[in-house]
Amino acid sequence: MSVDKSKVLIEVQGLEKSFGDNRVLRGISTDIYQGEVVVIIGPSGSGKSTFLRSLNLLEMPTGGRVLFEGTDITDKKVDINLHRRKIGMVFQQFNLFPLKTVRENITLAPVHLKVMTKDQANKRADELLARIGLPDKANSYPDQLSGGQKQRVAIARALAMSPDVMLFDEPTSALDPEMVGEVLEIMKELAESGMTMVVVTHEMGFAREVGTRVVFIDEGVIMEENTPEEFFGNPQNPRLKDFLSKVL
User: Fold this and answer.
1) Of 213, 208, 203, 195, nearest in space to 171 by CA
2) Extended strands (E) in the chain
3) Which residues partner with 224 through β-bridges?
4) pLDDT computed for residue 72 by the predictor
5) 105: left (phi over 0), alpha (psi -120 to 50) or beta
6) Do the beta carbons of residue 83 and residue 163 sit within 8 Å?
7) Which of 64, 75, 82, 190 lies at 20 to 30 Å from 57 by C-alpha?
8) Angstrom distances, CA of residue 184 to CA of 91, 99, 193, 199, 218
9) What is the pLDDT of residues 162-194, one digit of tens each?
10) Which helix H or strand E contains 207, and what residues bound it?
11) What pLDDT was estimated at residue 4?
């Protein structure tokens, strides 16, 4: 994995998000570089998923800016949907269309958005299904798949648009323990291929092994961020030390 420090993909400047009186994000600033695998950890309710969902405006920030490839996507005049094409998103609950086959789930966006013809999209779907180890599931429906298989299809669906960055919101937390590994393996392979990734997860082994940077968010701020070696081996922040003592 080679991180290109000369190319900032996402710049986050003073990000704020409130739900009523509840300030969930309290001024987060960070840069995400091309080729980075940024793993975000923290206790439940710390703001980490809200932060991730703000990067493609699934949550609209109440303050601050998000620049994606140099464009301020929080600017009301910007067509967010054009930029979202380059930001793949994988959710906790898969979000597959139940009445469409696996292949139809993967080809829907590229065909609908006229990025590819139907034939091109089908070819791409077959390539992606081979890549995620499910070449024989193209004509299956989501309810015929295990949770791990559904999540792998959700990853393939996001990859169909050839995104520049992939966002993962706790992609393994809805899975049975024995299925977690198969999804993390695909994510690891993606990271090794050079994909820029921002991952909210509770999987500390993944953070340590695959992350290029680990970020600890608590109470809506970044308390600490570092390389995995330093982050886990030599934590500085008392809250982080306390958190790691409970999860490791």
Assistant:
1) 203
2) 4-19, 22-34, 37-41, 63-68, 71-72, 87-90, 165-169, 196-200, 213-218, 221-226
3) 216
4) 96
5) alpha
6) no
7) 190
8) 14, 27, 14, 11, 24
9) 999 999 999 999 999 999 999 999 999 999 999
10) helix 204-210
11) 82
Amino acid present at 2: S
Q: Which residue has the tokens 């299956």?
A: 140
pLDDT for position 47: 96
* Beta carbons within 8 Å of 227's beta carbon, 6+ residues apart: 212, 213, 214
Q: The tokens of 118 are what?
A: 């139907």
The ranges of the chain with pLDDT < 50 are none
Give the pairing of strands 71-72 and 87-90. unpaired
The amino acid present at 26, given as its one-letter code, is R
How many residues in total does the chain contain?
Answer: 248
- Model-level pTM greater than 0.85? yes
Q: Give the relative orientation of helices 118-131 and 102-112 as an angle to the nearest 10 degrees.
A: 130
* Contact call for residues 224 and 235 (beta carbons, < 8 A): yes
Residue 85: closest CA among 58, 115, 61, 105: 115
Taking each helix axis as running N to C, give the angle between helix 147-159 and helix 118-131, from 0 to 180 degrees, rounded to the nearest 10: 130
Report the pLDDT value the prediction gives residue 248, as an integer from 0 to 100.
Answer: 87
Burial of 98 (0-12, 13-18, 19+ CB in 10 A): exposed
